[in-house]
Amino acid sequence: ADGEAQCFAVRRGELEGRLNAEFYRAEYRLLLKRIRSRYPSIGPLSKAAEIVCGPFGSAITLDDYVTQGVPLLRISNIARDGSLDLEDVVFLSDEKASVLAGTQVRKGDLAISQRGTIGMPAVISDAFPVFNISANLIAIRQLEGFKPEYVQLILASDMGARQISRLQSGQVHPKITTDDIAGLL
Question: Is 29 left (phi over 0), alpha (psi -120 to 50) or beta?
Fold first, then answer.
């Protein structure tokens, strides 16, 4: 055990730009070492998908909600089982949704919570042609060959949750960023 603890001492050249002791916990570093040694061809999520954050917090206000239009996905619309719960979905006008087109997702993309209950992934359904995401979500947009259900299972697994836990920052209001999601294996 002593040899293993020494093996995981963090050396200056191993710092990854974070000065967070939790980030360098031995269990996280061992997990990533195992993944990389067993599956050397697996790269970061950014190689398979485009990662986009929701709009800045003040870009959408309660005054922007309308009775019909483009649905706005919020954390409350992601169920624990990874499905979309659209019972209380709110809508943006077509004009507002168009202004925020960079935050739109379609069938087969994923949305993952970046604040609150961190790391809850959901595959976007075909219930609507397009959705906008709120400021508390990150979009993982599919590219050719991308299997959203597979990625959702990985992110929701213990292995994915541990990687996400390692990356979260903030003490009072923990969060993850698009860069954090882009770097996941």
Answer: alpha
pLDDT in tens, 82-108: 899 999 999 999 999 999 999 999 999
d(CA 2, CA 24): 17
For residue 163 the two structure tokens come to 């990687």
Phi, psi of 70 (to 5 degrees): -100, 125
SS3 category, 122 = strand
Cα–Cα distance for residue pair 57/145, rounded to 1 Å: 32
pLDDT single digits (tens) 28-37: 778 778 877 8
Burial (Cβ within 10 Å: 0-12, 13-18, ≥19) of residue 175: middle
In 93-115, which positions are buried (b, 16+ CB within 10 angstroms) versus exposed (e)? eeebbebbeebbbeeebbbbbbb
Assigned token pair, 17: 């730009």
Q: Report the C-alpha gap between 49 and 174 in whole angstroms.
A: 24
CB 124 within 8 A of CB 109: yes
- Residue 3 one-letter amino acid: G
